[in-house]
Write a structure and sequence with these properties.
The protein has about 450 residues and is mainly alpha-helical. About 50% of the residues lie in helices and about 5% in strands. The protein contains 18 helices and nine strands. It has helices spanning about 1-10, 15-20, 20-40, 45-65, 95-115, 120-125, 130-160, 175-180, 190-225, 225-240, 250-255, 255-260, 280-285, 325-330, 330-335, 350-355, 375-395, 405; strands spanning about 45, 295, 300, 315, 320-325, 395-400, 410, 415-420, 425-430.
């Protein structure tokens, strides 16, 4: 069933669709403007909450054609502190999107709590499925959109339109799945069949946005810890893009941005640092840190001969061998003696060819092989686009209360996140687009 859903979904993620940045541009502008206003009021911003809302709105619009408008509910205020002005009285009105966000987070946390029990989790929830009520809230959002998509497909089919190609880029993933399941109608299982597949689309959407929000959160943490890297990134961005909206080709050419986020190409090792899955941030802080695998029986893995190792033989893997991404990304025997240090230049200098090029599967933030994340390029472009827009508007970053006092504590449900949020100060950049001198610090 997993292979069937992947086969149906894969054709949707074409270069043309994932490089259509209008959705990213609109929602990133909304998010960063709300952050600017909140900062100007004298309050820090929970960056994790900000990018979670940005990715939620972007992903639901891209994949469903309708976004949940979580940014319109407003950003949270920090806990009371002498560092901030008096907090405004909280509103008693609950924004409609809050129900969706709360249900998503609760469902994600409860689903993750099942992992230690393996297939036996169902016994612990024999009398009551704890995730089901939260899934029902999400379905309230999805089901009306599904009905519209089915009706839209029916109208197009009956009209025999010849203008299909002109509207290709405006087709959502849900539209694509409905069109792929049209044959089900003749067997009497069409609408329900589409419902099952819409849930598959929803799952993909939420996994992608979860990974993207996690990556952006820890990217910001690295910017607060390494101000020199923020200066280098901003210099490259202003040189390549200026203050305008970045294009697909411009993002592709930004080498240091790729090293900061970075990634691997699925087609050839020679282009390893060229496009898709995100990394020095994702190497140390993979969004799904415990995405482990265990071999059921003894097997072998291919090992291609190279110029440096012409007599390479397949790797023998004993039964019950386990690997985990988080540990593998930090191993000194795989990444060198500085494996625990954050250094994007490892994807640009001789270390790339010493460690990563001959052994590309040491870097798996989005997995690899037949089960590689289908949305990895979508996620990479979303991360890159938001970071570019962020560094065009803001120049320096530091932690704020309560994160500054409590520290950054990584936690995990289905994806990695910062417990308690990532509260930061972000200083606006100069209006003329110049790179500010590194000697200036945030007050």
């Amino acid at each position: 069933m997993s292979r069937f859903h992947r086969t149906m979904t894969r054709p949707f993620f074409t270069k043309e669709r994932i490089s259509h940045f209008e959705v990213f541009d609109r929602h990133s502008e909304d998010a960063l403007e709300k952050a600017r206003v909140r900062l100007s009021q004298g309050y820090a911003v929970d960056f994790q909450d900000l990018v979670s809302r940005f990715t939620l709105d972007s992903a639901t619009e891209f994949l469903f054609g309708n976004d949940v408008k979580s940014l319109s509910s407003g950003l949270p205020y920090p806990p009371p502190s002498p560092s901030y002005p008096p907090l405004p009285k909280p509103s008693s009105d609950k924004h409609p999107s809050t129900r969706f966000v709360d249900a998503f987070l609760a469902g994600q946390t409860l689903s993750a709590s099942r992992s230690p029990y393996g297939p036996s989790w169902a016994l612990l929830e024999f009398w009551k499925n704890r995730v089901l009520p939260h899934r029902a809230v999400i379905d309230e959002f999805v089901e009306p959109i599904l009905k519209v998509a089915i009706e839209k497909s029916r109208i197009i089919k009956e009209s025999n339109t010849t203008e299909k190609g002109a509207h290709e880029l405006h087709v959502t993933l849900l539209d694509h799945l409905v069109s792929q399941t049209e044959a089900g109608e003749s067997t009497g299982r069409g609408p329900r069949y589409c419902t099952v597949n819409s849930l598959s689309a929803k799952g993909l959407a939420l996994i992608v946005l979860g990974q993207t929000a996690s990556a952006l959160t820890f990217a910001m943490y690295m910017l607060t810890e390494h101000p020199g890297i923020a200066i280098r990134l901003r210099a490259e961005i202003l040189q390549a893009v200026g203050m305008g909206s970045p294009t697909y080709d411009q993002i592709k050419e930004m080498k240091f941005l790729r090293a900061f986020i970075n990634g691997q190409d699925n087609f050839t090792l020679a282009c390893y640092v060229a496009l898709t899955s995100p990394a020095e941030t994702l190497r140390l802080h993979p969004p799904v840190p415990f995405d482990s695998r265990t071999s059921i029986t003894a097997t072998t893995l291919p090992n291609r001969p190279t110029a440096s190792n012409p007599e390479a033989r397949p790797f023998y893997v004993p039964a019950r061998t386990n690997y985990g991404v988080y540990v593998m990304h930090r191993r000194k025997d795989l990444w060198g003696p500085d494996a625990l240090q954050f250094d994007p230049d490892r994807f640009l200098d001789e270390r790339l060819h010493k460690y990563l090029t001959p052994n590309p599967f040491i870097f798996l933030p989005f997995n690899a092989g037949p089960r590689i994340c289908l949305g990895q390029q979508f996620a990479y472009h979303e991360i890159s686009f938001f970071l570019i827009r962020l560094l065009q508007r803001f120049a320096r970053f530091r932690l704020a209360q309560p994160t500054e006092g409590d520290g950054v504590h990584a936690w995990v449900h289905l994806t990695m996140y910062v417990k308690g949020g990532l509260w930061v100060w972000m200083e606006p950049a100069s209006l003329d687009g110049d790179v500010d001198p590194p000697s200036v610090t945030i007050q």
